[in-house]
Amino acid sequence: MYWGADTALGEACHDSIGMSQAHTTFYLPDGQTSEGRETWTLVQNPNGTAVTVEVSYLKAGGGAVSLTKSIPANSRMTFNMADKVTSGRASIMVTSKTSGKKIMVERAMYWNNKGAGTDTIGGLATS
Predict the structure, then answer these.
(1) How many CA atoms lie within 13 A of 17 on its CB side?
(2) Residue 119 to residue 17: CA distance in whole angstroms
(3) Is the pTM for the entire model greater than 0.90?
(4) 61-77 confidence digits (pLDDT tens)
(5) Dist CA 9 CA 45 (whole Å)
(6) Distance (Å, rounded) from C-alpha 47 to C-alpha 31?
(7) What is the distance of C-alpha 16 from the center of its chain?
(8) Residue 16 and residue 58: Cα distance in Å, rounded?
(9) How many CB atoms lie within 10 A of CB 106?
(10) Inter-residue contact 69 to 83 (CB < 8 Å)
(11) 3-class SS string, the chain
(12) What is the dihedral of CA 91, 57, 41, 73, to 10 degrees?
């Protein structure tokens, strides 16, 4: 993805490997909502029916904050980590709670006034 041709640093970009199929659970590394950083979790529901997902922010130093949402069929929902972790760092775990339904997930981070960023699908569970 490319963005920010008008930023002070010029055009920026990030990319991630793709995935060949959906999975049940994703483990995403080190998100941050302090020091000018933004962290976004993008969850795709490739199923023909709605799927309930749980997004858990595993905070640095211990503790977790979670939310549960229903994602409509064949759509994507984006979660801003700052809505649950207002300042700090956290890893992210996303799980499909709908039996037999798998999802696709990625984590995007931006900093330097969106002049830089990174993206990953993290690790995943196949069961």
Answers:
(1) 6
(2) 9
(3) no
(4) 999 999 999 999 999 99
(5) 35
(6) 27
(7) 12
(8) 22
(9) 21
(10) no
(11) CEECCCCCCCCEECCCCCCCCCECEEEEEEEECCCCCEEEEEEEECCCCCEEEEEEEEECCCCEEEEEEEECCCEEEEEEHHHCCCCCEEEEEEEECCCCCCEEEEEEEEECCCCEEEEECCEEECC
(12) 130
pLDDT tens-digit map of 11-58: 555 555 566 789 999 999 989 999 999 999 999 999 999 999 999 999
Tokens 């996303």 correspond to: 94
Distance of CA 14 to the CA centre of its chain: 14
How far CA 37 is from CA of 22, 49, 77, 87, in Å, comes to 28, 34, 20, 9
Distance of alpha carbon 24 from its chain centroid, rounded? Answer: 14
- Read off the tokens for 106: 């990625």
User: Two tokens at 58?
Assistant: 């595993």
CA distance 56 to 84: 9
